Amino acid sequence: MIGGCVRCGDSAKVLLLMALVCLLVLAAIVSITQGAVQMPLRQVVGAIIDFDGSRDHLVIMTVRMPRVLAGLLAGAALGVAGAIMQALTGNPLASPDLLGINAGAAFAVVVALTFMHATSGAAYVWYAFSGAAAAAVLVHAFGSAGISGAVPLKLMLAGVALTAFLTSLTTAILIWNQGTLDTVRLWTAGSLSGRSMPQVAAIAPYILSGLAAALIMRRQFMTLSLGRETARSIGQSPLLWHGIAIVIVTLLAGGAVALAGPIGFVGLVVPHIVRFGIGVDYRWIIPFSALGGALLLVLADTAGRTLLAQQSFPVGVTMALIGGPFFIWLARRSAGGRS
Amino acid sequence: MIAILTSLILTIVALLMASLSIGDVPLSWRDITAALLHTGYAPQTETIVLDLRLPRALLALLVGMGLGAAGALVQTVMRNPLAEPGILGINAGAALFVTVLIVAFPAVSIAFLPWAGFAGASATAALVYALSWRQGTSSLRVILIGIGVGSVVGAGTTVLMAFGDIRYVQRAMIWLAGSVHDGDWHRVRTLLLWIAPPLALACMFWRELDLIRLGDQTARALGQRVEHARGMAIVLCTLIAGAVVAFAGLIGFVGLVAPHIARFIAGPGHSRLLPVAALTGGVLVMAADLLGRTIVAPAQLPAGLVAALIGAPFFGWLLWRRRHVPA
């Protein structure tokens, strides 16, 4: 992928996709075996197919497995959501955050912890998801009002305004409330620690259906990325497909923020990395972004756990520290010649 | 144009008068004029007006003007409506340096905070520009490298915020929220000297900015030395925004939204856009600071927060009113 496969044929891209899948499975297995206690591969397989309730099997099924699954789901969701947002707006700065998703989730979690005395663990998932969805609906309603319909610029500006508003409210609450700040600050950095299997199972349907829809409709997103005029002239209804894109992004990014906290980096950067590798065709960008996002998040989480030997080290940080320099190097190498 | 400028300046004067009279000790117009004229009649009132309220209001005005102009510059050069000074890594760099100082070296005097902020801002902006240079730059590359550098630097800040001592973290958070509460004459003078030359240069530069907005190829075909113009604009933006961040912390939303409001009012030409954006920014931050210190008095909300809290609904209203205008 790094070598660049912009001009490869379809069969080469399929092969590349297969290779990424293998890499992802490998990364997931390594991630399960590594940790405070090393688990041999045999134990892992045993825990999955023949669970005997021993301590090792319990650790695998209740601690490591949900963590890896949450990482895979959230990473894939964020990668695809970012790709769709960039296709929709035609703006390299676009990411799921632009719909106010992370700001809405953070606001809902902070309000729940401060005013409704929610218990932390369970509060995060559902409050985050509903906050994210509410923010996205509001941004879309505002951004698509009027005769001109859902113009990308209007949508982006509405998103930016709502994000700034909610972020400020959140900060205002946290400045007055040291207790909530202390509970919530690890979550806001983006973290996969402490996810339980029921939580993952509850969120997975949203993310999986979003991923499936995005993959099925990838041709439509390709058309969408050509811009409003072109899309309309080849017969696509901008109103309908804008709406569908927003719904899919909300499912994906809302689910991701519920599982892993507000992680900005994946949704913004993974689509760019994929574009450096395989070009501008969204029919390929969407599946590659799903795999790339999942791979990046799982690798970053594993690195944070093993290299730093810190169970709760926020994956958002490790990812930026690992992925950031890589991304800078790629952007220097390949982004837009001289002009 | 004259009507626009006059009404903006009148708004600023009105806000200034309001800032002088509203507060813990409400003052009448007569008290204020007496204090401003230095009659020496009531020394206490003079202290309140001249040493506390006036410098604070002026600092808010300068901060807002700097942010508005810097935002307009960077949106033009990046040709991106989502760009703001923070895209050059200015905010992330300042935040990292200041958080390191507050959280890791809490014993160091707070007098160093502005210097740390400015150093962080300009170092990061220089790094972004240098890394995106490869026989010339391009707007897309500066944006992408800015994202990359910003996320790495931001990760450093996040580590400190997540694992530092909670008391210092909260102090850092208040600084990061952006505030002009410690405005005094020394700060006002320093900031004025710091941002007046780059602001004036930027306004003299309007032709270059009008050209570079058209895209690299068109601008080059029209005879512009694109790299010079882009580099110049980035340097000016860094100087202005870096100084503002150093004195007032991260006031994020103004630099993004003031140029858009100005574009609604005055159109895209830079001879008009730059001054209008600067004044709009000034109005926003002054109003935010005034509200922030009065609505929850005696406590104070940082101006950076209030700017987003009042600026976002106002901007939303503007968007709503213009919803039928084809973009």
From TrEMBL, chain B:
One protein family per Pfam: FecCD
Give TM segment ranges.
Answer: 57-74, 86-106, 112-131, 143-163, 233-261, 273-291, 303-320
Keyword vocabulary terms for this entry: Cell membrane, Membrane, Transmembrane, Transmembrane helix, Transport
Membrane disposition: Multi-pass membrane protein
> Where does it live in the cell?
Cell membrane
GO BP term, example: siderophore-iron import into cell
Task: Please give one Gene Ontology molecular function term for this protein.
Answer: transmembrane transporter activity
Question: InterPro entries from the xrefs?
Answer: ABC_BtuC-like, ABC_transptr_permease_BtuC
Keyword Ribonucleoprotein attached: no
GO cellular component, as recorded: plasma membrane
State the family it belongs to: Belongs to the binding-protein-dependent transport system permease family. FecCD subfamily.
Identify this protein by name: Iron complex transport system permease protein
Give the originating organism: Pseudochelatococcus contaminans
Traced from the root, the source organism's taxonomic lineage reads: Bacteria, Pseudomonadati, Pseudomonadota, Alphaproteobacteria, Hyphomicrobiales
